[in-house]
Design a protein that fits this description.
The complex is a heterodimer. Chain A is an all-alpha fold. Chain A has 12 helices and no strands. Chain B is an all-alpha fold. Chain B is flat, with a radius of gyration of 30 Å. The N terminus and C terminus of chain B are likely disordered. Classes of the chains: A mainly alpha, B mainly alpha.
């Protein structure tokens, strides 16, 4: 009897130890995950803030080897590229989401589209770049801002579609029925009742897609190409912030490294702002917990 | 959100004499049949004309938007196939497994744009090895974080921690690359690699495991310690795919019903046993799915890898050696390809990447869907 108890307590000691070890490992893992994040942020702020100045926002790059200069053209170029991408991607994405949630609900076609959108989301951005290259750059015979915008716009579509759909599905059916019961045509009910009710969530989705493509570099390398000078033409190669960071990061000049850090800080601040704005809007909006 | 009431204000039915074609939106039929002739609402609706056409047009446009996703995938596939025809005709399937031998040095020769020799083997190798290294590092950590967040975390820590993992996912890959070039690579070169080199070239270890050819001077940690290379690429990839695996695993674990946990706890299990038996075992399919999804991301990741992998189309056993991945070679060489054949070879690598990531993602989505289909939708 005594032996049994002893055996028993030994085993429970092992079990308790295993429990503690597992807890410790889980905590350790969490710390190990948080450390690189903090390291990246601290380093970014430390390196970036020390090299940020007014010239960064107002000047275009100096020739290689010269000290100074800024990324004004890259910031403006990024804005233009993202503008084109949003104009192309957001309406189509929202339309697709509306179809999935309002018209095709439960049909086999809608399921197939949903699945394709998820898969398209996982296709590497560099492949999107090749596609945009052969669709736009090859027929045009030159690199252009427009082709870069197309590449980014295509990447926005699946994300926007999926979030719009999920947000629309959260709108209670009674709202739709009320609108239809008042004799509002279906298209009007979808646009000004359902979509408007879900608009905080839909905006969240658009901002997330926006934040995602804002940092994309790979599809721009051979569509927008980059530009040392000031250019706002859709038909010319154009500079973009992430592209410029990449070019400067692999260059041998210290001053360009400095600019790369500053650019990365600006990019991150913009993205973090977008994400936190989204969280704020979503938590205040009608669809709580939407993000 | 509000339909302006003035718009629906009931007016006198002037045009009631119009043909009663029943063309008002279908939803109004029940109302009409309940109260056919008297209803002023119906009269108003009839007077306003037929919205069925507008509805059909609207749903058609929305359907076209949705179908555009199919069109995009089809267009990408067609373009990639068309643009890679040249390489396909010249090399066929051997593009992916053959290589030439350099007549002078007797070393394998894979990729020589100047002489028109294009074989993709080193890129497949680089992509596979860096992704595997990334998975080996990221999977245990991600599962640990997910367990901590779902089962152990005090409430006040949960929100900031999950926000942080979300932020980690929002950092662009070029910023990861920048950090890797200036912080991670020196760190690996100065501090971490010497430890592994020490272990792997230790004479006792070599004696014991020499038969695997993984230790010693031509083993996993042999060769020149540049910092750049497959290991650096794997580590930065691990940091990048961690949030994806962690957040999906967390989602899958949250989907396990609480009754499972309670049942195991009621049998006298410790917390770890509860997690192992009640949660992990139930969520294993979804966890595998999320790992595969992370793998899909790692395979296609471009910029960070291109910045630290070293960019040399060679194959070495050592993780410290420089390499090249499928995505990084496209990023590096596409815009300055020397010939049509060169460009088409790069497109064919892109096509392979496209097909592989589609398969991997479809598999992963399927697995995650199997587990979470019962729970309410959530935006990732």
């Amino acid at each position: 009897m005594k032996k049994q108890i002893k055996k028993h307590s030994a085993r429970s000691a092992i079990r308790a130890t295993a429990d503690h070890v597992a807890t410790g490992l889980a905590i350790l893992a969490s710390i190990l995950v948080v450390v690189p994040l903090i390291a990246i942020f601290v380093y970014l702020v430390y390196k970036g803030a020390s090299s940020l100045n007014l010239a960064f926002f107002t000047q275009i790059p100096k020739p290689e080897g010269e000290v100074g200069g800024g990324m004004a053209n890259a910031i403006a170029g990024s804005a233009l590229l993202l503008g084109i991408a949003s104009v192309l991607g957001i309406p189509v994405g929202i339309g697709g989401g509306i179809y999935l949630a309002e018209f095709g609900r439960g049909t086999r076609l809608a399921n197939a589209i949903r699945f394709t959108a998820d898969v398209l989301n996982g296709v590497p951005s560099i492949v999107m770049g090749i596609a945009a290259y052969s669709l736009v750059v090859v027929p045009q015979h030159h690199f252009s801002a427009f082709s870069g915008g197309v590449a980014l716009g295509i990447m926005m579509i699946p994300t926007v579609t999926r979030t719009t759909e999920e947000m629309l599905l959260m709108v209670p059916n009674s709202v739709r029925e009320a609108a239809l019961g008042l004799g509002v045509p279906n298209w009007r009910s979808v646009l000004s009742i359902t979509l408007r009710t879900a608009s905080p969530g839909v905006i969240t989705g658009c901002m997330l897609a926006f934040a995602r493509v804002a940092g994309e570099t790979a599809p721009l390398i051979f569509t927008a190409l980059g530009n040392e000078f000031w250019s706002m033409s859709l038909n010319q190669p154009i500079a973009a912030l992430p592209l410029q960071i990449y070019i400067y990061a692999i260059s041998p000049y210290d001053d360009q490294h400095r600019l790369a850090w500053a650019g990365a800080l600006v990019l991150i601040v913009l993205i973090v702002l977008a994400v936190s704005l989204v969280r704020y809007v979503a938590s205040r909006g009608i669809l709580k917990g939407a993000s | 959100m509000t339909v302006s009431l003035s718009e629906i204000k009931i007016r006198t039915p002037e045009k009631f004499s119009g043909p009663p074609d029943g063309g008002a939106s279908p939803s109004s039929t029940p109302l009409a049949s309940a109260n056919p002739a008297v209803s002023e609402v119906r009269a108003y609706l009839l007077a306003r004309g037929n919205s069925a056409l507008a509805d059909r047009f609207f749903s058609g446009v929305m359907g076209a938007c949705a179908l555009s996703i199919f069109a995009i995938v089809a267009l990408i596939a067609i373009e990639l196939v068309l643009q890679s025809q040249l390489t396909w005709h010249k090399f066929g399937l051997s593009f992916f497994y053959k290589f030439n031998i350099d007549p002078d040095t007797h070393l394998p020769l894979f990729w020589d744009p100047v002489n028109g020799i294009f074989y993709a083997v080193p890129f497949l190798y680089g992509t596979l090895v860096s992704s595997l290294v990334a998975l080996c590092i990221a999977v245990p950590l991600a599962i640990g974080v997910a367990i901590f967040l779902t089962e152990m975390c005090p409430r006040f820590l949960r929100s900031p921690l999950s926000f942080m993992t979300e932020l980690l996912a929002a950092i662009p890959s070029v910023v990861y690359g920048l950090w890797a070039v200036f912080v991670l690579v020196p760190l690996l070169r100065e501090h971490i690699n010497p430890i592994f080199i020490g272990i792997f070239s230790n004479s006792a270890v070599v004696k014991l495991f020499g038969w695997t050819h993984l230790v010693g001077d031509d083993g996993l940690f042999g060769g020149v310690n540049l910092g750049l290379g497959l290991l650096a690429a794997g580590v930065i990839l691990a940091v990048m795919i961690l949030p994806i695996i962690a957040s999906l695993t967390r989602e899958v674990m949250t989907a396990v019903p609480n009754s499972q946990r309670e049942a195991v706890l009621a049998l006298g299990a410790t917390r770890w046993e509860m997690i192992r038996v009640g949660v992990l075992r139930n969520a294993r399919i979804g966890i595998v799915g999320s790992i595969i999804l992370g793998l899909g991301r790692a395979l296609g990741e471009t910029m960070a890898v291109a910045m630290v992998i070293g960019n040399s189309p060679e194959i070495h056993r050592s993780l410290l050696s420089t390499g090249h991945s499928m995505a990084s070679v496209i990023a590096n060489e596409f815009s300055e390809a020397t010939s049509d054949l060169h460009r088409s070879a790069l497109v064919e690598i892109g096509l392979a990447l496209f097909i592989v990531t589609i398969i991997v993602n479809a598999l992963a989505r399927g697995l995650v869907w199997v587990v979470t289909r019962g729970t309410p939708a959530r935006v990732q």
